[in-house]
Write a structure and sequence with these properties.
The complex is a heterotrimer of chains A (about 350), B (about 200) and C (about 725). By secondary structure, chain A is α+β, with helices and mostly antiparallel strands. Helix content of chain A is about 35%, strand content about 15%. Chain A folds into three domains: about 55 residues; about 120 residues, Cupredoxins -  blue copper proteins (Immunoglobulin-like, Sandwich); about 90 residues, Sandwich (Immunoglobulin-like). Chain B is elongated and about 70 Å long. Chain B contains five helices and one strand. Classes of the chains: A alpha+beta (about 350), B mainly alpha (about 200), C mainly alpha (about 725). At the A-C interface, helix 3 and helix 4 of A face helix 8, helix 15, helix 16, helix 17 and helix 18 of C.
Chain lengths: ~350, ~200, ~725
């Protein structure tokens, strides 16, 4: 199933700049239910689990049908007419319990073994991870840090994770405030991000594509809108992306851009960082390469100029309770700010 | 009682020692209170095992006074036991005396423990150890205070001549509670004062 | 009519042969044959009452004796003895009796009604949630409102409905099933109810202010901690839970002591109904598990109010500690709220199958085994917390092993139906439907117990589906079935069969329509606790179906309520044993008289009302000849295992102290909530005072030495 679709997926990813403006629903091939992990798995950290799920469901449905039929049969069974006051003897029927429990025990034992084998298969990658990143959960967005032995090659981004395909990626999970959980269902199971603790998990994508992730630990008013995306790319494309991200923001000089930059430094820099400018706020997503991202605000809306403006001026309406205020800006300020933001490639 | 059920046997009436409901009730209460302290100590060990702080913050605890206090509490327990024995033998004056002694020792424990608390340079909001120490000993202190009140009531009731060798289940029940409070202290003492010496 | 048979046996001149205990209880009757022979000796003739006036006399001058031979006799309805008993046990009329009554039947009924009101409130909250979720991007509720709704829904259902409703059944039925006149601690029983009621009200106080708890029913820190939840909401939850914990604990203690001490003579431990086993197991579990959650909430409250650091990771506290403490309680708790309900089925199903339960001992043992294992699986709620795989494997495997005792019960029920001749009355439908739902819920449980699968399923709607299948399937369905079953006992009237069948089918279909699709939602990746979702997630249709199903289910509940109201007024009058059931509660009139049993019966088998038909050779219980015990409120205390009488228990009279202690206790918590030190201390003092009044040794209960030193009976060491 995956084989037949991967060509299609590759097509999507190579056309990816075009898609930035497309509606979210067109972004992944599994258009219906992008988080459907029961029928879709695109990597070795989730594939064994998917099979395990199929086996469990098949087996349990079968057992359910058998026992239900027995029950219905028992209920409807024809019985010899008897004196209505007579009652059955107490000491019969134990063989039902012996046989039923015996068979159930055997099945359960087999299921336990199979489960343990699967757990073993998914708990560690077969080869050493090629890449390590740290993802930190914030109320209600994700900070993504790409690690490197050379500090100058480290970089930070938000809400979008790029990984090279067919390589295990180790993800260190932290939280800046409350407990969140990191979950990219078609790539791997979830792991909580607990303050004061660094958890780990690994993911690996076999095919190129964009995979949706979602916070799955209740974390407050906007838990519903704490999504992110994993973009799995070929090694080369990933390299290109990585190099792009390492750069600081390009300094473009134009009148409105300058005005916009000034507004940003005045109004936004307390929370946001743009590497290459004085903006170095630490409470909010790094915006250095904002325009390279597909979605904003924890997966809430696509990253179009319109949406950006709407977000900046009406954050509290789009995402009530979000930790970013709705900014009060004049029309002129808005257009200047937009011009500036559009340079953040 | 494997023998026959005799329906025409004379039976005791009312709260008769271990046949009274109260005796069974206190056993169940002790089970649940015991698990409460169990969970408290679990909390202590869980947090202690993961801590990166200096533990305990002021270095190893000084054992002298707490050990004395432990002995005081145990003696008090023994007094209650003796007092109950005296009732069984109809020696009511002795019973009153022993109960009074038990009560005084209980009060001593409270006073000494309060004094111990006052020696700390930190309190329950200063650091994690402080939170644990004061809540665990505080919980126990609360039980001791309840126990002291119970002993006082028992003393009063014995003095009022409510009990004789046939009916004194209140003493048995209240006494059991007091023994429980003392046994719990042994666990707390071991945990808070002795285990730091072993790691 | 059964009573008549027994009476005939009693008056049989060769009586002793008829009174032999049943040898059927595997090894329960110890001793050799001759000794068994002497069990249930016919009462000595001169112990029987001479005339009707006898008791009137003794009541005016209560016998203060410390030992006494309990009189054996009979007290048919309308006799002087019976009237005297009714007088002794009756509560005062009007509000005074209302506040001071300690009758287990009244308390049980109060529990049932209160819990049901909470079910309706929790249900109404759920229906509002379902409206919000029916379609994508709805804005009926703000996120904060939604969060408070699902939290209050969870709290209400789990803590204020599912256990209290079972406590209601057990409170009402235990003494009737055990052949006693009340619970071991009637005043504690009243206290437990009042505290439950006050705790329920307490938990709801902040709801109208828009400040209800909002961190989910398991209330993880640090989200529930002082930093991220600054309002009074979590304080209300924390304090409310500690208060409720008191009620649960004393209730549990009462059940345990009642079981071990209050059974009718001859009702050895192997003869008690399965409901008793279920509630006993649950009560024992509560005794050990509730302190964990009370402590957790108390520590949380301290963290919030006094700057302690138990969960505060900046100072070395650990958020995971909360999860451990909560689930060490939480998992046993989910069995607490189903084992008694499974007991309801195990006891009532046989009635409709016209045969005893298959594998009584196996089912009783499986009940306890489930609970025992249930204490060792709490980590399965924490599979995604990053614990090492080895620990996960262990707890995952134990969780699966828990299915084995459940298998025992399931096959016992099916075998009972198979070997019996089912009568298709409404309760039967509920119990048969329950078996199906239990399987579905259990199987989804097995899926989430598989660690790798749970890493996907955890915190999705699959869990929501699982928890509703088990909670509604194993709690609500048996409870509703149980009400259909015992309604005639409670009120002396039958419930309407037609409406009953309608309510079953509407509930059953609505339930499955509403909750089965949630499994699919979970597999499609829908996280739980989200207030809305986008249309492109592919969840819209399924959510719509779910919402429709939820409303159909609610309609079923509504039919059920209508049925109750109609039947209360116009139901057919019920005899004492309308279903021809085997257990003791059906031996007394419907509704039962205040004193339950005019005479304390002597029990010789598990099925006292079926003895004549079950086994010709078995012993015969004696139901209308028994201990009279009417010198004040009295009942018999028996030994824990064999139920041999060993004390005449004096039962307390009605009292206001439980109400006031409960009230002052609740006010202590109000004081803590309002940060009013003076008020708190004052109320704590009032509590101690009430306790002193309560516990003061009294002559009437022979807690004290009586005035008259010597008794007319045999002296006793
Ligand atoms: C009401 C009671 C109740 C009951 C009875 C159960 C029963 C079981 N539960 Fe459930 N559970 C809950 C209430 C309950 N649960 C709740 C409320 C939650 C969610 C809490 C929250 O997060 O809000 C939860 C969550 C929960 C989780 C955590 C999921 C997660 O958060 O990720 C797990 C994981 O192991 C689990 C497992 C089980 C298992 C293995 C059983 C077993 O006991 C089931 C056993 C029964 C059967 C298996 C069926 C009968 C057996 C047969 C017919 C024999 C044949 C069977 C086989 C061969 C398989 N449950
Ligand atoms: C016994 C327990 C119990 C019961 C009976 C129910 C009953 C229902 N539950 Fe509940 N549910 C839980 C226990 C229970 N639930 C728990 C523990 C959670 C987890 C909470 C958390 O995450 O913290 C949960 C969570 C939960 C969610 C997930 C919320 C989320 O994660 O975002 C949903 C969503 O659909 C839901 C729906 C329902 C519905 C539709 C019903 C229906 O069955 C309700 C049917 C309606 C009634 C029974 C009432 C009938 C009402 C009328 C007839 C109207 C008249 C009313 C009045 C006059 C007052 N429940
Ligand atoms: Cu972050 Cu939910
Ligand atoms: Cu569980």
């Amino acid at each position: 199933m995956n084989g037949s679709k991967s060509g299609f997926r590759r097509g999507i990813v190579s056309n990816y700049p075009v898609l930035v403006t497309a509606p979210v629903s067109a972004m992944t091939d599994n258009q219906i239910a992008p988080l459907n992990y029961f029928l879709h798995s695109y990597g070795p950290a989730s594939m064994p689990t998917m099979y395990l799920g199929w086996v469990f469901v098949a087996l349990l449905v079968a057992i359910f049908v058998i026992i239900s039929l027995l029950l219905i049969w028992a209920v409807l069974r024809k019985r010899s007419a008897e004196d209505p006051r007579s009652v059955g003897r107490e000491d019969q029927g134990m063989q039902w319990i012996y046989i039923g429990t015996g068979i159930s025990t055997c099945i359960l034992f087999a299921l336990v073994i199979y489960t343990l084998i699967t757990l073993n298969a998914i708990s560690k990658p077969t080869q050493a991870p090629a890449l390590t990143l740290t993802v930190t959960g914030y109320d209600w967005w994700w900070k993504v840090e790409y690690e490197n032995d050379d500090p100058s090659r480290r970089f930070v981004t938000a809400n979008e994770i790029h990984i090279p395909i067919r390589q295990p990626v180790l993800i260190k999970l932290k939280s800046a405030d409350v407990i969140h959980a990191f979950w990219v269902p078609v790539l791997a199971g979830k792991t909580q991000m607990i303050p004061g603790l660094t958890n780990q998990q690994w993911i690996e994508a076999d095919v190129e594509g964009v995979y949706l992730g979602q916070c799955t630990q209740y974390c407050g008013v906007q838990h519903a809108h704490m999504g992110f995306e994993v973009v799995a790319q070929s090694e080369d494309e990933f390299k290109i992306w990585q190099d792009g991200q390492r750069r600081t923001a390009a300094t473009v000089f134009a009148v409105d851009v300058n005005a916009g930059r000034k507004i940003f430094l005045d109004r936004c820099a307390g929370c946001h960082t743009i590497r290459g400018t004085e903006a170095a706020g630490a409470h909010a997503p790094d915006l250095t390469h904002l325009k390279s991202r597909r979605l904003i605000a924890g997966g809430l809306v696509t990253n179009t100029p319109d949406h950006l403006v709407k977000w900046i001026t009406h954050a509290q309406e789009l995402k009530p309770g979000a930790r970013m205020p709705s900014m009060v800006l004049t029309e002129a300020e808005i257009s200047a700010l937009s011009a500036f933001l559009s340079t953040l490639n | 009682m494997a023998e026959a059920m005799q329906l025409d046997q004379a039976l005791p009436v009312g709260s008769e020692g271990k046949r009274s409901g109260g005796w069974w009730g206190i056993l169940a209460l002790i089970a649940t209170e015991g698990s409460l302290f169990g969970y408290l100590l679990f909390t202590y060990f869980y947090l202690a095992s993961q801590t990166e702080q200096h533990w305990p913050p002021e270095g190893l605890p000084i054992l002298f006074m707490p050990t004395m206090n432990t002995l005081i509490l145990l003696t008090s327990s023994a007094c209650v036991w003796i007092s109950e024995r005296c009732i069984q033998r109809s020696q009511f004056d002795w019973s009153i005396a022993w109960m009074a002694l038990a009560h005084i020792l209980g009060v001593c424990f409270v006073v000494i423990q309060l004094n111990e608390w006052s020696k700390f340079t930190y309190d329950m909001s200063s650091n994690l150890y402080g939170s644990l120490y004061f809540i665990i000993t505080g919980f126990h202190m609360l039980h001791v205070i309840i126990g002291v009140v119970i002993l006082m009531a028992l003393l009063l009731w014995i003095a009022l001549g409510y009990f004789d060798h046939r009916r004194y289940s209140a003493v048995t029940i209240g006494g059991l509670y007091w023994h429980f409070v003392d046994v719990v202290w042994l666990f707390i003492f071991t945990t808070l004062y002795l285990t730091p010496y072993f790691y | 009519m059964t009573d008549v048979d027994v009476a005939q046996n009693m008056s049989d001149p060769a009586g002793s042969s008829g009174l032999k205990p049943s040898p059927e209880g595997e090894g329960w009757v110890r001793g050799n044959q001759n000794k068994e022979e002497s069990l249930f000796n016919p009462p000595h003739p001169n112990l029987l009452p001479e005339g009707e006036g006898a008791y009137a006399v003794s009541s005016t001058s209560p016998n203060p004796a410390l030992t006494r031979i309990p009189e054996v006799g009979s007290a048919p309805i309308g006799s002087a003895e019976e009237k005297h008993l009714a007088e002794l046990w009756e509560s005062a009329p009007g509000w005074r009796g209302w506040l001071s009554t300690i009758d287990h039947k009244t308390i049980g009924m109060r529990y049932l009604v209160t819990a049901f009101i909470f079910l309706l409130m929790g249900g109404a909250e759920a229906l509002i949630m379902r409206l919000q979720l029916a379609r994508p991007d709805q804005t009926l509720l703000t996120p904060e409102q939604y969060n408070q709704l699902f939290t209050m829904h969870g709290i209400t259902m789990i803590f204020l409905y599912s256990l209290p409703v079972l406590s209601g059944f057990s409170n009402y039925l235990w003494p009737l099933m055990l052949g006693s006149r009340d619970m071991a601690f009637p005043r504690l029983n009243a206290f437990s109810y009042w505290v439950f009621l006050f705790a329920g009200i307490f938990l709801y106080t902040s709801f109208p202010l828009g400040e209800a708890p909002n961190a989910g029913w398991f209330n993880y820190v640090p989200f529930a901690g002082p930093e991220y939840n600054t309002g009074p909401n979590i304080d209300v939850y924390a304090l409310g839970m500690v208060l409720l914990g008191i009620s649960t604990t004393v209730g549990a203690i009462n059940f345990i002591v009642t079981l071990f001490r209050m059974r009718a003579p001859g009702m050895s431990i192997g003869r008690v109904p399965i409901l008793i086993w279920g509630t006993l197991t649950a009560a024992v579990a509560n005794v050990f598990a509730v302190p964990s959650v009370s402590l957790a909430f108390f520590l949380l409250w301290l963290d919030r109010q006094t700057d302690t650091h138990f969960f505060d990771m900046l100072n070395g506290g650990k958020p995971l500690l909360w999860q451990h403490l909560f689930w060490m309680f939480g998992h046993p708790w989910v069995y607490v709220v189903v084992l008694p309900a499974m007991g309801i089925v195990s006891d009532a199903l046989p009635t409709f199958c016209r045969r005893p339960l298959v594998g009584y001992s196996a089912v009783a043992l499986s009940t306890m085994a489930t609970m025992l294992l249930g204490f060792g699986v709490w980590i399965h709620h924490m599979f995604a917390t990053g614990l090492p795989p080895l620990a996960l494997s262990f707890f995952g495997a134990t969780s699966m092993v828990i299915s084995i005792p459940s298998a025992v019960a399931v096959f016992a029920w099916i075998a009972t139906i198979w070997l019996g001749r089912p009568v298709f009355n409404t309760p039967f439908l509920f119990f048969a439907g329950f078996v199906i739902l239990f399987m579905i819920g259990g199987f989804s449980g097995v899926m989430v117990a598989a660690v790798p699968l749970d890493l996907q399923l955890n915190e999705t709607y699959f869990i929501v589906a699982h928890l509703h299948y088990v909670l509604l399937g194993i709690n609500v369905f048996p409870v509703v079935g149980g009400i259909y079953y015992w309604f005639p006992k409670f009120f002396g009237r039958m419930m309407d069969e037609t409406l009953g069948k309608w309510s079953f089918w509407v509930m059953f279909i609505g339930f499955n329509l509403g909750f089965f699709p949630m499994h699919v939602l979970g597999l499609l990746g829908m996280p739980r606790r989200i207030y809305t979702y986008a249309p492109h997630m592919g969840w819209s249709t399924v959510n719509m179906v779910t919402s429709i199903g939820a409303f159909i289910f609610a309609a079923g509940i509504l039919i059920f309520i209508v049925n109750i109201l109609v039947s209360l007024k116009r139901g057919a009058l019920a005899s004492s044993n309308p279903w021809d059931a085997p257990t003791l509660e059906w031996a007394v009139q419907s509704p039962p008289p205040v004193y339950n049993f005019a005479v304390i019966p002597f029990i010789a088998s598990r099925h006292p009302l079926w003895e004549d038909r079950l086994d010709e050779n078995a012993g015969r219980s004696s139901l209308d000849q028994g201990y009279l015990l009417m010198e004040g409120r009295e009942t018999i205390g028996t030994t824990p295992l064999d139920a041999i009488p060993d004390v005449i228990l004096k039962m307390p009279e009605d009292s206001y102290t439980p109400f006031f202690l409960g009230l002052f206790g609740a006010l202590v918590f109000v004081g803590l909530l309002l940060h009013s030190r003076e008020f708190t201390v004052l109320m704590a003092l009032a509590c101690s005072l009430s306790l002193m009044v309560w516990l003061w040794p009294r002559k009437a209960l022979v807690q004290r030495v009586p005035d008259i030193k010597y008794n007319k009976g045999v002296a006793h060491g």
